[in-house]
Amino acid sequence: MILEFEPTFPEHVEELVRIRIAAMHESLTKVGRFDPDRARERFVSGFNPEYTRFINVSGLRVGFVVVKPEASGLKLDHLYIEPQYQGRGIGGNVLQKIFATADQLGMTISVTALRDSESNSFYQKHGFVFQDETEWDINYIRKA
Predict the structure, then answer these.
(1) Coil, helix or strand for 61?
(2) In DSSP terms, which residues pair with 126 in a beta bridge?
């Protein structure tokens, strides 16, 4: 698998929103919170192309990732893989690349997952540890 990151620009926002909605549809529907307008609004309000990268596999855009710097380390703000490409190890490979950078810099990584989403087991499987939780989300951390 040839995995590469591609920069994003403001003109990509609609494609990114489409990927986000497609990737989260099942999880949000399961908890009764699927609202494409809200999903779009939440993403657009925090969109910063500087920290957003498309995930390309063998030249195809299959998702995107957002990693933002924070005072305490890095925040894995978004990691979405198109539904037809999920379950192929792409997300795990993306995490390995992010972990390599974080470990080299000695930085922790935090991530938030929607309660009852399969992403919780995905993040735990890849070394994230429970930190705390809110009504809708579970927060994890991975130390360098």
Answers:
(1) strand
(2) none
Q: Which long-range contacts (CB under 8 A, 24 or more apart) does 97-100 make?
A: 97/3, 97/5, 98/65, 98/67, 98/74, 99/127, 99/142
Q: Determine the Cα–Cα distance for residues 90 and 63; give it in Å rounded to an integer.
A: 9
Instruction: Tell me which amino acid residue 124 is.
Output: Q
Closest residue by Cα to residue 76 from 48, 111, 103: 111
**C-alpha closest to that of 135 among 118, 116, 109:** 116
Domain map (residue ranges) of the chain: 3-142
pTM of the model: 0.92
Distance CA 52, CA 39 (A): 17
pLDDT tens, residue by residue, 75-117: 999 999 999 999 999 999 999 999 999 999 999 999 999 888 8
For helices 13-30 and 36-46, give the axis angle rounded to 10 degrees.
130
Q: How far apart are CA 76 and CA 99, in angstroms?
A: 11
Spelled out in words, what is the top-level CATH class assigned to the domain 3-142? alpha beta
